[in-house]
Amino acid sequence: MQSRVVTIGIFGILLGASLSVAQVGTPQDSLRELEALRVEVAMARNPGAARRGVDADFVRDTVEERLDQLDIEPLPNEESSETTYLSVTLNPARISDGFAVSLLLQLFQPARLTNGETVMASTWHVHSLGISDVDDLQDYVRNALRNHLETLASAHRGANRR
After folding, report:
1. What is the pLDDT of residue 120?
2. C-alpha angle with apex 143: 100 to 132, nearest 5 degrees?
3. How confident is the model at residue 27, as a pLDDT?
4. pLDDT, tens digit, for every residue of 48-63?
5. Is pLDDT at 25 greater than 80 in this prediction?
6. Sign of CA pseudo-dihedral 70, 63, 8, 134
7. Angle at CA 123, nearest 5°, toward 118 and 128?
């Protein structure tokens, strides 16, 4: 039980750091006319998760398949660094009876600063932190990704309905 509390505490610290992003307007506004994006996956190295079929390729394939179903074209990673992209950060940490899973999706888009410089800014995000059984990790991650992408799809539909 103590390892679970420590693990969740560490994820809480990481979550606080990762969610300190600026947003202008409503997050939904940033999804207006969004038709294509790159997918970037960042995943903590975890041999236990990889043995259970959860690696960066699994995450990318799951996300790109769902984006395609939502009529948002996944672009190849060779596209310009100033292309809108969806960052997917997955951190499955082994705990005594399963995995603590932190999943963060952030949409980054080019934004012009007042000094004229263009930067990539986070304009939309969703995060979850949960516990998965050892044997159900792949299903847990797949379902969490689908739920987050459905949240994105709903916001996207709302932004483009106007």
Report:
1. 93
2. 25
3. 60
4. 999 999 999 999 999 9
5. no
6. positive
7. 140
d(CA 125, CA 138): 22
Mean pLDDT for the stretch of residues 84-95:
95
Instruction: Please state, as a whole number, how many other Cβ atoms lie within 10 Å of the Cβ of residue 134.
Output: 13
Residues with Cβ < 8 Å from 143, sequence gap 6 or more? none
Per-residue tokens: 61:
């394939």
Of 77, 59, 84, 78, which is closest to residue 148 (Cα–Cα)? 59
b/e 21-50 (16+ beta carbons within 10 angstroms → b): eeeeeebbebbeebeebbbbbebeebeebe
> What pLDDT was estimated at residue 21?
39
Nearest to 98 by CA among 75, 131, 73: 131
Nearest CA-CA partner of 125 in 36, 18, 11, 10: 18
Domains of the chain (ranges plus CATH)?
2-160 (3.40.50)
pLDDT band at 16 (very low <50, low <70, confident <90, very high): very low
Summary mean pLDDT of the chain: 84
CA 160 to chain centre: 21
Answer yes or no: are the C-beta atoms of 87 and 42 closer than 8 Å: yes
pTM passes above 0.90: no
Tokens (6 digits) for 56: 């960066």
